[in-house]
Specification:
- The protein is an alpha/beta fold.
- The chain folds into four domains: 217 residues, Rossmann fold, CATH 3.40.50.970; 112 residues, Rossmann fold (3-Layer(aba) Sandwich), CATH 3.40.50; 176 residues, Rossmann fold (3-Layer(aba) Sandwich), CATH 3.40.50.970; 63 residues, Alpha-Beta Plaits.
- The protein is built from 21 helices and 21 strands.
- β16, α19 and β17 form a beta-alpha-beta unit.
- α10 packs across α13 and α16 runs parallel beside α17.
- The radius of gyration is 27 Å and the shape is globular.
- The chain binds thiamine diphosphate (TPP).
- Thiamine diphosphate binds next to α4 and α17.
């Protein structure tokens, strides 16, 4: 494909009279932009803060765009690549840590390039609102030599998506559009544009480009280096790079959501707003640096832009004043400029604007079916390798039944490693049984290879597959274990028992999560079994309480001995009442939130908890 370096422009919808303007969340605006850009195939694995993008895209007509949930992010990217190979515009969506999962495919696709435009939306989570780390996608994009575009608000998102596809096809490269939690989940008015229909390209029958074997890859690496230089030049003149010259005292280079904060707190500074952090328009940055007395870079998380500028020998201030961890806000940016002496200290720092909410520890929902697994594990004094999902909350009080949690799909292999240390006489003998706990979606995402590995290597572990029939953590999406697609169509439903048996697990049992005695019994037997044993803890999630609510439980205060056993369930529906016994509070149950799971009744030694009469 020709690399002219000139991007064909599609008309951007301007704020014309009668323009259709809607308040859209950043994620909805990104989906809108993909649809307007003529995307034909889209795939994603859910993950906060990115999940709503595919949900929104699935709201557009099926004839326009095929949209699917994939089992994990690498699969999602591979599906999008397949569509790109076939010459249509394709999209893959994930949260920042998902890019680690997809990185292997990305590192090859960057060599291959694209046929139909290929865009990957990656949503970062500065401040770690709902993630296992705070990594900066821009560093990975640079490593992969993939251009990264960073809209600064929802309004810009559709235009950035259109540009991303144009850049992808013009420069023969995948493009990352990066969002962050604040952008993804903030609403602003967005001008809606029309969809452009992009003609499908012929399959590019060129193995040297499409088949990455060493002799071909060697030829492609120099092409990547040329591409980097051409893209850098493109961003020198692109409309996406915006220069606003005001005062000469301070000049700020910024991008994404940080741009809004800079404008709010240092309104008289000159600002060079970059389209993204890689590749950078060197000439433009040099000229800007020369035109101001003091140069700042304001960027959330890593000093990606700052380091590149400093490497060119340009004097610049950045991370010395603006933190490298946590989420930015106007207060954080203001404090940075005050520290740098660019703003007077008016004594209205962080503390004035910073309102700390009352701490409220996250807990499992009333009636959460995951509860029983951790109650029985705690009693069995198991060493528990956890995984990522709602159930990770069982790591904290009062359940406190998870010892480790690393990344999606880590639990089973972590458990294998733990189990292999058992019986090592020279290191002392650890007796606690080893159990891995993993949710249904996480199991399908990346739990199967480690399960196969555990069987293959004869690990003596128990796996608890916590099947709540949904991806609860991200708001209740479907997956191959629910038997429903993203658009709600019926499809094959994975049968976990057969999957486990087919890879050689000899002990598999499905147990009703609400039956504590059965869970205890199954765990004992599984632990006693030599080899890999799998318990499938099976009960629907309570995410839709209207659907699953049973009879609420009630405390018969007259017989309650205030023993607090039910408190150890960690259910938010149970609280202390005003009645006392033996110097301790008796308990009460909120009938509005109680699901009727009966966990509390099953552990009550005095039978004081009974199904309510509703009176
Ligand atoms: C690599 C990666 N992708 C996505 C996520 C977001 N995420 C965290 S847990 C999870 C799945 C949870 O579903 P499941 O395993 O079924 O457990 P549940 O929350 O339903 O209990 C997802 C999608 C993540 N943390 N890491």
């Amino acid at each position: 494909m020709a690399q002219t370096g000139r991007v064909a422009k599609t008309a951007a919808p301007s704020a014309r009279p009668n323009a259709d303007v809607r308040p859209l969340m950043g994620n909805e605006a990104l989906a809108r932009g993909a649809w307007e850009a003529g995307v034909r195939v889209a795939a994603a694995y859910p993950g906060t803060p990115s999940t709503e993008i595919l949900e929104a895209l699935s709201g557009y007509p099926e004839e326009d765009v095929y949209a699917q949930w994939s089992t994990n992010e690498k699969v999602s990217l591979d599906v999008a690549m397949g569509a790109s190979f076939e010459g249509v515009r394709a999209l893959s969506v994930m949260k920042h840590v998902g890019l680690n999962v997809a990185a292997d495919a990305l590192m090859s696709m960057t060599y291959i390039g694209v046929n139909g435009g290929l865009v990957i939306i990656v949503c970062d989570d500065p401040g770690i609102h709902s993630s296992q780390n705070e990594q900066d996608t821009r560093a990975l994009a640079r490593f992969a030599m993939v251009p990264v575009l960073e809209p600064s608000d929802a309004q810009e998102a559709p235009a950035f998506m259109r540009h991303a596809y144009e850049i992808s096809e013009t420069f023969d490269t995948p493009v990352i559009v990066r969002s962050t939690t604040r952008l993804s989940h903030t609403r602003s008015p967005v001008v809606l544009g029309e969809r452009i229909e992009v003609a499908r390209r012929e399959f590019d029958d060129n193995p040297v480009k499409n088949v990455m074997i060493p002799s071909h890859a060697r030829l492609r690496h120099p092409v990547l280096l040329e591409r980097e230089a051409k893209l850098g030049k493109y961003f020198e003149t692109s409309a996406l790079t915006e220069l606003e010259m005001l005062g000469r005292a301070a000049g700020v280079i910024t991008t994404s959501i940080s741009h809004g904060y800079v404008k709010e707190v240092l309104g008289d500074a000159s600002v060079l707003k970059l389209a993204g952090s890689y590749p950078l328009p060197e000439r433009k940055i040099r000229d800007f640096a020369a035109s101001v007395e003091r140069l700042f870079v304001v960027e959330e998380l890593e000093p990606v832009i700052e380091d590149q500028i400093r490497a060119w020998g340009i004097k610049v201030d950045g991370k010395e004043f603006f933190p490298r961890d946590g989420e930015f806000s106007p207060e954080v940016v203001r404090a940075g400029f005050v520290k740098a002496g660019a703003l007077p200290d008016m004594g209205i720092g962080d503390d004035v604007f910073h309102i700390e909410p009352t701490p409220r520890p996250p807990v499992l929902c009333p009636g959460c079916p995951h509860t029983s697994a951790y109650m029985v594990l705690r009693q069995a004094e198991a060493r528990v390798a956890g995984d990522i999902g709602c159930y990770t909350l069982a790591a904290i009080e009062p359940l406190r039944a998870i010892d480790t949690c690393v990344s999606m799909g880590s639990s089973i292999a972590n458990a294998t490693g733990m189990a292999k240390t058992r019986g090592m006489t020279k290191t002392g003998v650890e007796q606690r049984p080893v159990v891995a706990t993993i949710g249904d979606s996480t199991f399908l995402h990346s739990g199967l290879p480690p399960l196969i590995d555990a069987v293959y290597n004869n690990a003596d572990i128990t796996v608890m597959l916590l099947d709540n029939h949904i991806v609860a953590m991200t708001g209740g999406q479907d997956h191959p274990g629910t038997g429903k697609t993203l658009r709600g169509e019926q499809t094959h439903r994975v049968d976990y028992e057969s999957v486990c048996r087919s890879v050689g697990v000899k002990w598999v049992r499905t147990v009703d999560s609400y039956d504590l005695a059965a869970m205890h019994k199954a765990l004992r037997e599984a632990i006693d079994f030599k080899g890999v044993a799998v318990i499938i803890s099976d009960r629907e999630c309570v995410i839709d309480p209207v659907k699953v609510k049973g009879i609420a439980m009630e405390v018969r205060a007259e017989s309650c001995t205030a023993c607090q056993s039910c408190m150890n369930v960690g259910c938010p529906s149970i609280s202390w009442s005003d009645e006392w016994f033996d110097g301790r509070h008796k308990v009460k149950i909120d009938p509005n939130t109680c699901i009727g799971c009966t966990f509390c009744a099953q552990v009550c030694p005095s039978d004081s908890i009974q199904p309510g009469t509703g009176l």
